[in-house]
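Quick log. Single chain, no ligands specified.
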Amino acid sequence: MLTVKEQQTFEFIREYILKHGHAPSMEEIAAGINIKSKGVAHRYVKALVDEGLIEAVPHTNRGLQLTNVYPTDVDPNWLAANQCKLPLLGQIAAGQPIEAIPDQQEVNIGNLVGPNRYALKVCGESMVEEGIHDGDIVVCEHAETARNGEIIVALVDNEYATLKRFKRNKDQTIDLIPANKDFLPMTYPAERVKVQGKFIGLVRLIA
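-> predicted structure:
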């Protein structure tokens, strides 16, 4: 698990790249996380590289770039300090579909905050082979369409929501595919399934 300072370093680098289009220098990283030592900043950066959160590009100035990996086992104290929140719209089934009832809460989810995103609490074990477990908080982005193979929030019969991998078949049916060998795919006529969002990432709070 990342330390608080390593998490702060990752967030600073990420925001800097998104704003400026290139990575910060070690001096800028040190200043951005309120430390004086470039050596300590370099140690934090190396920890992020080792975790696969950023990549070092050799033989280049400011040679850092983001990967598509985000921290999952997040220190709750860091989340609280950052006050990064998304609406928690209720539970999402990782099993059989369950009734979709927004509960109007909020959840701290750190660097996964983004436009048109929301959080759901996972209920069930049907997606464990994707690393999504019962009790996890999944972050999703509002969407009405999906490509085959994407993990989506599916609303069945305008009433029941489930988190599954999406597959549209040639016979105008849709498969909602679990990631657990103990569960079978669910197949519905296309008109019974509405895409409500796409899976972006998850947070697993550590007790």
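Residues 78-83 have pLDDT under 50 and may be disordered.
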